[in-house]
Request: fold
Amino acid sequence: RFRRGVRELFVCVFKPECPFRERRQRQLLGITQEQLETTAKTFRQVCQPKFQIPDAVADDVKRGIFAETKEFKCYISCLLDIMQVARKGKVNYEKSLKQIDTVLPDAIKPAFRAGLEACKDVGRGIKDHCEASSILLQCFYKNNPMYMFP
Reply:
């Protein structure tokens, strides 16, 4: 219940009709790197047990080490879906741009925009959404010097 509630609140703040939107937007404008990492950990707690990914393997992603197992690739897909960066391995381009502009600190926005632009089509034509998500994340890693991931 808690995990679903966190996701619903996160999704809500990006919808115009959300009752928390105005207050939440004011809070998000000053979001820090530490706050981003705390939020990312919450998302990780949803997906990691679902696919039985050990902490060491999940931590390797931050250093650009990507496991080649189906479970790991589906874990990546789960996280990208929760963050609304992608849906089933396909980039949510407009939502991602909106999140970059709304949520991220100004100092890292250009790097995230560049990564999104470079990778927006990388998953097209790949039928396995877990595989597409893994390829997408690896592209983000290569094309975003400020890369971070739960």
Summary: The beta strands are 86-87, 90-91. The first helix runs from residue 2 to 12. The chain is about 65% helix and 5% strand.
